[in-house]
Structure formats: structure tokens, C-alpha cells
What does this fold into?
Amino acid sequence: MSWSLIIGQERIKTQLKQTLQNHRIAHAYLFYGPEGIGKDALAIEFAKAMNCETGSIEACGACKNCRRMDTFQYPNTKLVFALPSGKSEKTGDDPITVLTEAQVADVREQIQWKAKDPYHRIEVPKANFIKINSVRDIKREASMSRTEEGKKIFVILNADMMNAEASNSLLKTLEEPLPGIILLLTTSVKDQLLPTIISRCQLLQCDSLQDAEIESALISKEGVDHSIARLAAQLSQGSYGNARRLSSLNMLDERKDVVEFLRLVLGKNRATLIDAIDELASSSDRPGIERWLKLLQSWLRDALLLQQNAQTPLLDDEKKSMESFVTKFNHANLIASIQTVEKAIAHLDKNVYLHLILTTLAIDLRKFITEAPSV
Ligand SMILES: [Zn+2]
It folds into this structure.
């Protein structure tokens, strides 16, 4: 990894590089912002740069420390995350050795995943919180005489998962910083942390990613097809994690369902439309309907681009049906149609009855698409 491999986040990257350049490194940082935007990736890259033997603002990737960091085998940098509780684990026990062999294997595997892909979300079965023993481990390691030169860095992933005991223990470490120890915390729910922990960290607010950043990362990093990457980025709410999940779903089939729904909305058979609304309302939960509505919205946006003769990358069979739609309803008010879907999405959050949302949507769409504009 190097800074350039981290998706977007230019503002934070610049800030961290300046910190490295000025050698003014604080003893604790908190990376916060929405889920799936690369907070861990930033923290890990920061740790790598601090460890690199070249002392530059960018990890060289070739020195001994960088190579060991690539597999997280560098003793000066440790990942701290939620672990299962060991059988009759007592305070002071080693947080890992109390686990079963299978659990230790799970943990190792997760660390290897994270080393390969800093956007990977570590998930160990039955790991509900960050244990006090993991935090005590930080203190123990910090006090040990060091065999390695340099700083000792602990990257605490999803720090909000610390239980009360662990939080209080970490707070003591923050109140009396140990020389040479740097803590990098990440969280997507900052409010879940003790205010006293937050106030002792340097805060780094990370932003949601741009659609274009996500789209190109899906194509270059994951080899996702262009049209799927674009769709997944549009629906991801600025989260690369969401976009990756979405791009592995059957989004193109769902988009076909959306077209089928539009066909019913614009057709003459009201009974079939009512059945379709019934089915949609009863078969999906609110997040499912929200994704479906966003797919409808992105389809209408593409149709709008086509109506305005702008470029839009579409799959061949999709292009055909969209072209015939745009030709047939050449006076369609697609901007109002897109807005009416937006309104439906907003109503979802307000817990409005699903049938009502979808029926209103169908009536409005029919009006905006079929009625000739008043002159
Ligand atoms: Zn290096």
C-alpha cells in the first residue's frame, strides 16, 4: 500500500503527510466517519509511514519494516479489535491464548485478510466487544523493554466496541501517555466513545467518498464491470464497503424488475399494478425497498441523460428498452419523476405505510411520464 492506493480522502491524506513531514506526531488519533470509507486504511497507512526505515512521508514498501507491516508481522504495530471471550478468562489473561485453537485460527485469518485488504472488515464469530485484556495488553507491551527501534503503534479498530472496562482502562493510558506509544483509533459511531477518550485524541473526520472515486476503485481494484460499478457507486451512499457488497449482488436483475414496474405503472392493467405493489410491499423490508427505489431513480436518471442526448454507459439490452421508453414518452417530465422517487425514499425514513408510499409513487410517476406538458 501507499497513500495513492487509498480511495479518495485527499484532505486527510494531506493532513497526515504534513504531520509526518513536520515530525509533530500526537500520541493518539481518532479517525471517524461513516462505515466503509477507508478509516482503517488511512490509520494503517499512517502507521506504515511512521515505521518505514526511510523516514519519508510515504511507506517505501521495500524496507524490512514495510515488508513486515505488509503481513502485520511487525512487532511494533498491532491491531486491536473485538475478540471472543475465552473460557473462564480472567482480567490479566492474554486475550488470544485464552481462545480455542479454532478461534485463534479465525483471528489469524482475519488479520491476514486485513493485511491484504485494509478495506476488509474484521469479523470474528462471537466477538462482541474489545476486551479489557486487549487494552491491558497495550499497557503491558508498552512497558516491556523494546527489542525494536522506533515507535510502538496500536491500531484500535472500531474503538466503539470497547466495553466499559476496556474504555476506562484505555482512558488511563490516554491520560498518562507512555513515551513512544501511539494509539490510532477508528470508529463510525464516535458518539459511542467516552467523551473523555474523544477529547484526548486528535480528531480526523473522514468524509464519505465521491461516486466517481468509488466507481473507479471498483473497476481497478475489484475488476467490476463498468455498468455495475457505476450503479453500485450511485447506491453506495459514499461507502466503498457498501459498494463492494452491492456490486456482488444481482443488481442488474433488480434493475430489470424496476423496468417491469414502470411498465405496469404506464400500462392499462391496474389490477396487475396493485398486485405488484402488494408483492413489493410485503416481500421487502425498508432497506430493500430503499435500494429498489434508488435503482428506479438511477434508471430514470439514465433515461434523462438519454433524453438530453448525453452520454450514459449502458448495457446493450438495457439501452434498447430505455431508448424505446424515451422515444415513446418524449414529453416525459423525468426531473419531476426523479424528485418523486426522492420523496418516496424520504417517506421511508418517516415510517409511512409502505403501500401508501408505493401507490402514491405509481400515480405520480404515471402523471409525470404520460401527461403532455402544459404550454
Ligand atoms: Zn519502508
Summary: Residues 250-370 form one domain. The two ends are 59 Å apart (CA to CA).
